[in-house]
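Weekly puzzle thread! Below is a chain. First person to post its structure in token form gets bragging rights.
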Amino acid sequence: MTLRVIAGKAKGRKLKSVPGDTTRPVTDMVKEALFNILGRDVIESNWWDLFGGTGAIGIEALSRGATFIRFSDLNRLPVETIRGNLAACGFSQQAEVRRGDSLAMLRATPDRQFEYIYIAPPQYKEIWSQALKLLDANPGWLAATGEVIVQIHPREYKEIELVNLQKSDERKYGSTLLVFYDKA
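Winning reply:
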């Protein structure tokens, strides 16, 4: 699958994939749908792409006017891929790339707030629900109008008891489910 930026300042720029099969890049259809849902709210927003992979979601947000993206990923190859893709699109100055355990990062005291936190972890390992529960327990990561977006396979989804977050929407696109959570 050819990865590319589909709109905005870096429209048409090709993105490199992470070597191997450790990541599952988002399709253009899902990316287009996500950003159509968010609309102009992306402009001047701050994002945390928790399981950065190729960086495609955060880079698309920057291309569409987001101010800042933090990417985190546990592995060296995705981190190097994200840095290369940011440089190729001219967005290195608007991003921070951290290598480490995203779940451990979520447990830490928040050092900034984000309008969007994007969770697209390795599939079928319950990591998405762990991340969501950690954000629910540590909601200071989210701005007052912040939103958490989870990207998983539809078979992975289950209701989770939350205190500070509430599910606001879900959209299914083939084998991809986007679930949206707002501050309660």
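Puzzle host: Confirmed. Bonus trivia for everyone else. Residues 3-183 form a domain with the Rossmann fold fold (CATH 3.40.50.150).
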